[in-house]
Design brief:
single chain; mainly alpha; two-stranded antiparallel ribbon; 2 strands; about 70% helix; globular
């Protein structure tokens, strides 16, 4: 008489697959770690036009690898991208309303804190006595908060232009939702603060994805408005073609700036 496999049987049958999966993940991490240097170097060169710094004092370092853009901009870009992920993950990827007043007030405060920290850092860079000693982890933290604010307002604009029907709700409807999102970003901040070497390449790739999403979104808005396609999209698949063109254009723009801006700045 046939009997259904017990829990132990099922668990036992999965054990080899779990072991193989863990070994494959470990090998992948090692391979990525070995290739991190050239890849990060290339991505830093690609971003040199949108984030030019003549020295590395404002950059993060993980496992001896310098971040592809400065600490503050890393926070802004990645913070915006994580907010975008949060919106789609919570079912509010098409939300077209700006945050409610209380959330907007906190977001404004986060932007103000970043501006104040940036001013303090500028004072130090100019050789004057700052109110406090600038620190890259503080630049990263304030950038993450400001990036959240950027995405909280940019995503509703994109949604209101693209979709033929967009829900009349904000992507961050409450302080609780905002705190949960900031908690997710705090986890990333901790990883960077601990200088986890294996996170060097993932951070570079995440930053690059953020750059392409942000610049691509702006390009997409321009393409859609110029072609008269506003409020005509109903599915994500319909957006793939103009979205791909917008991202490709973002790559061309970044590459062009990388060729021009460093030479101009070095000649000044």
């Amino acid at each position: 008489m046939n009997t259904a496999p017990t829990f132990q049987d099922r668990a036992g049958s999965r054990s080899p697959a779990i072991v193989v999966g863990l070994l494959a993940l470990a090998l992948l991490l090692l391979a990525l770690s070995a290739a991190a240097g050239p890849v990060i170097g290339f991505l830093r060169a690609l971003h040199s036009g949108v984030d030019y710094h003549s020295d590395s004092t404002h950059h993060l370092f993980l496992g001896g690898h310098q971040s592809i853009i400065c600490a503050r901009n890393t926070g802004i870009y990645v913070g915006a991208l994580l907010t975008w992920f949060w919106a789609w993950g919570s079912g509010k990827g098409r939300a077209c309303r700006f945050p409610p007043f209380r959330v907007a007030a906190v977001l404004a405060l986060l932007v103000g804190v970043m501006a104040a920290d940036g001013l303090n850092s500028l004072v130090a860079d100019m050789g004057y006595q700052p109110a406090y000693s600038p620190h890259n982890l503080l630049r990263l933290a304030t950038g993450l908060g400001a990036g959240t604010a950027v995405a909280a307002y940019l995503l509703p604009v994109v949604s209101s232009v693209l979709w033929c029907s967009a829900p009349e709700e904000p992507i961050l409807p409450s302080i609780r939702a905002l705190l949960a999102l900031l908690g997710l970003q705090a986890a990333l901040w901790v990883i960077v603060a601990l200088r986890v070497a294996l996170f060097a390449l993932p951070l570079a790739l995440l930053t690059t994805l953020a750059s392409l999403v942000l610049f691509g979104a702006i390009n997409l808005l321009v393409i859609v408005v110029l072609r008269g396609w506003d409020n005509t999209f109903d599915t994500v698949r319909q957006i793939m073609q103009p979205g791909g063109a917008a991202v490709a254009l973002a790559l061309v723009e970044m590459a062009a700036l990388a060729l021009v801006i460093p030479r101009v700045m070095q000649g000044m």
